[in-house]
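Chapter summary example: a protein plus L-homoserine.
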Amino acid sequence: MKIAIFGFGTVGSGVYDVINMNSALIEKRAGKPIEIKYVLDLRDFPGNPVEKVLVHDVDIILNDPEVKIIAEVMGGMKPAYEYTKRALLAGKSVCTSNKELVAAHGAELIEIAKQNKCDYYFEASVGGGIPIIRSLCDALVGDDIVEIKGIVNGTTNYILSRMGEDGLAFDTALKEAQDNGFAERNPAADIEGIDAQRKTAILASLAAGYQVDCDDIPTEGICAVTAADIACAKEFGAKIKLLASIRREDEKVSAMVAPFLVFESCQLYHVNGVFNGILVTGNATGEVMFYGKGAGKLPTAGAVVGDIIEAAKYYGLPSDIIWSPEKAKMADKGSMTGRYYVRINGGSAVKAKEVFGACVENAVKYEENIAFITEKISEADFEAKIKDLDVLSRIRVYD
Ligand code: HSE
């Protein structure tokens, strides 16, 4: 079976390497040999063996009836959206790591694939090498998924781990993540929580079976998390993690991406570095945890190759992923409840006690600041209470 790879960046070159490295077992598992006929990229790669299959014109691939499967690993919307649609309309299955495209147009592309008897697979779009998508669509399909909480961005988890455990400065840790190929081309997407927001939209849409848009997911990144917060969190026996949080209740979905204090008793506390950890709760199975490398060339490529094998094995027998383009009913953000970590100037302690009560007595000290953890409170009430307090930092607590 002939395939093509769109994009020869970190993931694309990984897909190329994994297919060549594991060709014998891939043939056995797919039931047929899988051969890379083309790699599409705008750039040239002089001296690289990929030159033999490198093309710059997408039409060569889209018009070639021999090509049955495409790995779209170029990322971004343009031209990936158009190329993907054209490939699916031509009956070619597409396997992707492109979370931006899947989050925005997943439902539509799945439908086009169904109509053209091919597949749109996106295992690598969430959790890198972790098999979370197929698990939700397949092994856990008998469950009503009521909650998903997890670390879904490797770059920010790497940064927070290096700051917390090794005392690295934010910029140094980010540079390391970039050098390791974990970060997005524009790392603002990682540190501002946008990458995690896209992954959360995909997970929430699959859990609900309806479209959850990125715009419906309140999102905070890790830019406001300081060394002072990491030190205070440690005093409370916690670490700070950027979490995706999805709940389904009364037919409504609440979803959010934000930094959270996570205590040692929670499995996510122990998920460090580039690793992702995702806790899925089904109404029958209960809690299941997924853990693995959430970013990087080979883990992500491994997930794409897994999809290619699945698409090759069942070519002509498309799968049925349930994701309606109809919008999911979203819960109001202000009604979400939880505890908060708050850091203020020590001089405001009396006022803070008037507002938040006895919990301020258990504050930890950090230089001129104090930090305390509130009782459980709604988002709306919390925002109202801190209006007149000089809050230096506030971070949600994962309970
Ligand atoms: N930048 C992403 C991350 C890559 O750090 O998780 C994997 O999606």
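Key point: Residues 126 and 199 are 5 Å apart (CA to CA).
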